[in-house]
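Recap slide: DUF2624 domain-containing protein, sequence and predicted structure.
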Amino acid sequence: MRIFENIINHKINTITAEELLKYAMQFNISVNRTQAKKIAEYLRGKNINIFDDRERAALVKEIAKAAGPETAREVNKLFMQLTKAN
C-alpha cells in the first residue's frame, strides 16, 4: 500500500490550482479559484505526507492562514477522502 501513499503524496506536493479545483468539484468541496491558487502555491515543493496526522494537521493550519479556516476545513475533507481511499 505504500506505493499508493507515495503517489497521492506526490500529487498533493505537485498539485496545480486547476487540479485542486477539479478534485474539489469531484468530492463536492467548496474551494474557489483564488483559494485553490493560494493552496497550490503553498503545497508546491513542501514534500508533505498527508497520511501522517501531525503533518496533515500542521498543513491544514497553514492553509487556514493562507485561505481562511472554512477553506482549510474543506481541503481537510478532501485530504481525508484521499487518505481513506488507500
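The CA atoms of residues 35 and 58 lie 18 Å apart.
The radius of gyration is 12 Å.
(End of recap.)
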